[in-house]
């Protein structure tokens, strides 16, 4: 399985965990909610769905809404297929959700993982965020070293492009720092009933995101300079 197809399977399972959907609804959610998938086509999605069905992680059911019945009657076509997550599929998705290996830090995979942070335990969120930050700090160090070596040989436009790429990575590192601090603050202190701070180590609680107006995160497409 390619890395990108693995990301797509992960996202499909995560979306279907929320509710069963038609293929068209899935494609729309992948495009609108997870921008990293906006270039995916039906030709990519449906083989993925068939694979997940074959693995026992999804089942296919005929659409049973009044709109589906009317469309079938008027067109004479087969009812739309609805995809539903099985118990085995839910278990498989939860296993994927708990993984924090190097793939979780890469551009596209990180964007997909972040989209499902609301379903992810705090300790896993922290490991993914810290891993992503470490990966970007390594990338930033290499970019700075490369720029220092080649600065004299670059024209003004190429130099500006290099600087823009570095600024994009620096911006995401600042954003990750804010997220990590928010997660730590949510773990260590939560307001009690009387407004006083209370210690909290519940791994599944949401740590909370930085307030609006903070440093923006990466483009959902994962288009971070390399």
Explained architecture:
The protein has helices spanning 3-18, 23-32, 42-54, 66-75, 87-98, 107-115, 122-150, 156-188, and strands at residues 21-22, 58-62, 81-85, 190-191, 197-198. By secondary structure, it is mainly alpha-helical. The strands form 2 sheets. Strands 1-3-2 form a 3-stranded antiparallel sheet. A two-stranded antiparallel sheet has the order 4-5. β4 (190-191) and β5 form a beta hairpin. α1 packs across α5 (87-98) and α1 packs parallel to α6 (107-115). It is elongated. The model is unreliable at 69-75, 189-203, 211-215 and 220-226 (pLDDT under 50).
Could you give a short description of this structure?
The protein is mainly alpha-helical and 226 residues long. 58% of the residues lie in helices and 7% in strands.
Annotate the secondary structure layout:
Elements: H1 3-18, E1 21-22, H2 23-32, H3 42-54, E2 58-62, H4 66-75, E3 81-85, H5 87-98, H6 107-115, H7 122-150, H8 156-188, E4 190-191, E5 197-198
Antiparallel strand pairs: 1-3, 2-3, 4-5
Helix pairs in contact: 1-3, 1-5, 1-6, 7-8
Topology, number of strands: 5
Helical residues, percent: 55-70%
Question: What global shape is seen?
Answer: elongated
| Main sheet: strand order | 1-3-2
Query: Quaternary status of these chains?
Result: single chain
Please tell me the overall pLDDT: 80
């Amino acid at each position: 399985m390619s890395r990108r197809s693995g990301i797509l399977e992960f996202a499909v399972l995560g979306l279907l965990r929320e509710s069963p959907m038609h293929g068209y609804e899935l494609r729309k959610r992948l495009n609108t909610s997870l921008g990293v998938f906006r270039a995916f086509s039906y030709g990519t999605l449906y083989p993925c769905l068939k694979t997940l069905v074959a693995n026992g992680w999804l089942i296919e059911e005929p659409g049973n809404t009044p709109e589906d019945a009317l469309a079938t009657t008027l067109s004479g076509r087969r009812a739309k297929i609805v995809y539903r997550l099985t118990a085995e599929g839910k278990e498989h998705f939860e296993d994927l959700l708990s993984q924090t290996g190097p793939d979780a830090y890469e551009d596209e995979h990180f964007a997909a993982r972040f989209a499902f942070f609301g379903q992810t335990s705090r300790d896993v969120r922290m490991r993914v965020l810290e891993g992503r930050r470490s990966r970007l700090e390594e990338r930033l160090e290499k970019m700075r070293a490369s720029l220092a070596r080649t600065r004299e040989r670059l024209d003004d436009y190429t130099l500006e492009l290099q600087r823009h790429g570095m600024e994009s990575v620096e911006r995401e590192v600042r954003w990750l720092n804010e997220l990590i601090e928010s997660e730590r603050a949510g773990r260590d202190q939560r307001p009690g009933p009387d407004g006083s701070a209370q210690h909290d180590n519940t791994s599944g609680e949401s740590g909370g995101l930085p307030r609006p107006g903070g440093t923006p995160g990466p483009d959902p497409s994962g288009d971070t300079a390399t």
